[in-house]
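Why does residue order matter? Because the sequence determines the fold. Keep that principle in mind as you read this record.
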Amino acid sequence: MKRNNDRVVYITGGTKGIGYGVAKVLVAAGYCVAISGRLLADAQQAASTIGDRSQIIGLQSDVRVWEEEVRAVAAIKQHFGKLDVLIANAGLGVFASVDALGVEDWKNMIDTNLTGVFHSLKAAVEELKQQKGYFISIASLAGINFFAGGSGYNASKFGVVGFTQAAMLDLREKDVKVTVILPGSVTSHFNNHTPNDADSWKIQPEDVGQLIADLLQMNPNVLPSKIEIRPTKTK
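Structure:
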């Protein structure tokens, strides 16, 4: 397969849902891709269904653990030679009234959804600067719209939006483009959901992948720094 400018992409949380859909689109477009998940077997299995190891690899990394993201970036550089694009996608949600939300549920959401994004960028940022690369975080419309039962999830996603936009200001003069994407309803396995025909009205994971493919092809002088996407209709 002809490479897409030989650019290498790392997608956290790439074993299913949005991350998996994005990986499929980018591999089909000719990018080299690494996906990660908490379990190595899951990451390798997901990668094998998309392409061979010349195009895509699966890695173990828990974004909550700084050292694991450092190792993941090093493994990508060893396998593909560099890293051009980081897509911080790993996330989870537990929804309950604030008086019922468990302390561990809160910690897991903040550590995964927010601190994990910091770990991923911190581990990759010097390579992104060297390659004049791109950092994309996957937030949510819950990062600008609060709702009952969403205190922990809202806090984490509001944080991702703020973090990414501040990072954009930090890195734009250092030749790294930065975008935060805020999807609405997406067909995925999120919150223990099993995708089915009733999800046909939602954004599909591959739609997010196509959006990212389009971003990566934009004029270097143009930076869509914050993008909200919604289903065309509400069911």
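The chain has a mean pLDDT of 94.
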